[in-house]
Amino acid sequence: MMDFTLIPEGLRIMAYGMGTTFTILILFYFMIKVLLRLFPHREQ
Amino acid sequence: MFMEKLLMGIQSLTWGNVIMFLIGGVLIYLAIQREYEPMLLLPIGFGAILTNIPVIAEVPGIADPEHGVLGILFRTTILTELLPAFIFIAVGAMIDFTPLLKMPSMLFFGAAAQFGIFFTLLTALLFGFPLKEAASIGIIGAADGPTSIFVASKFAQNLLAPISVAAYSYMALVPVIQPPVIRALTTKEERRIRMDYREVKVSKMVRILFPISVTVLAGIIAPISVTLVGLLMFGNLIRESGVLERLSQTAQNELANLVTLLLGITIGSTMTAEAFLNWKTLMIIGMGLVAFVFDTAGGVIFAKILNLFVKEKYNPMVGAAGISAFPMSARVIQKMAQKEDPSNFILMQAVGANVAGQIGSIIAGSVVLALLS
Fold first, then answer.
1. B118 and A18 in contact by Cβ < 8 A?
2. CA torsion B346→B348→B351→B352, rounded to 10°?
3. What pTM, to 2 d.p., does this model score?
4. How confident is the model over B146-188, as pLDDT tens digits?
5. Collapsed DSSP state (helix, strand, coil) of residue B8
6. What are the structural domain ranges in chain B?
7. Tens digits of per-residue pLDDT, B185-224?
8. A24 and B128 in contact by Cβ < 8 A?
9. How far is A8 from chain B (nearest CA, A)?
10. CA end-to-end span of chain A, whole Å?
11. Cα–Cα distance between B11 and B15 in angstroms, integer?
């Protein structure tokens, strides 16, 4: 027995969920790039 | 009367109890004989046996919430989210983010491979589960035991046991689940794609600032993520600081072992016959597989889409490593790559994606919590 009533809500959660996850991880990507640029590894 | 008391236990035994003894036994067998996530499945299996020993009058069961040891543990450490929170400290202390810091682009695969969470949420809704229960089932796709337990203990305590069993069982089955999905979605040529690996050195300062920055950034964007992300990164900071070796070792060993021990048996104590032996449990087990399949598919397809726009192609199998099952998924991908071309080494990229998946799964879990709280 399939129930389609909450599917629009589920699709909304999917869109927001994947979108927010991607956005946050993309921000982390740039954050890591900035950190690597600001604090490069120095040979001792 | 004396004989009556002795026979009360036997008379209270139901077929449901017996079946749960067998299920507990199967979990213990899988843990010991097949070594499927023994640290969780063995305590869960034994907890299931304990909780299904018949309760008789005047003798509270071990899972009784007021008087039973495991019931008190469940009420005070699982319902309060205390134990799942502690385990994040332990997990954070165990993770080495260096492979990810060397290849931050792997974060995209860590995000894409969380698709299974939301697809499974949708599937669960289709099968009539209410929204919060559907989200708890979907979070099996995080392929991360602590995250699954954390979200399920918040949204669907009645489903905590089957969700935990499904999450840990499928994590152990990653070497069986991922290869057929990858082969179905990729061509031989794609699986043979080589990826350049450039050795990048990461300074200690970056390794220290990373957990702090992630916590602040994630906390500002999604305040509800502070517990999950914050404690994970706290554990990682202890590890990377270099001055807290004793605390780091305690978090990685004693804390991890103690929490896992109590978590497993407490979750197992929720596996009563009434709660476990129903169609919902079977559906959860089935949808757990859907979650892992679509996680893998999400990562692979995302890599293939990226390849349309980049000059240096990604091996799509690395996308599948964006699942959080570390380090098993990375090893599976490297094995598959070498099967296609014995001289192709994509292990470092796969490990980077796998570590990214660990962050991705916790962020996705936090997002689910934020959207539905």
1. yes
2. -110
3. 0.90
4. 999 999 999 998 899 899 989 988 998 999 999 999 999 999 9
5. helix
6. 2-372
7. 999 999 999 998 888 899 999 999 999 999 999 999 889 8
8. no
9. 9
10. 67
11. 11
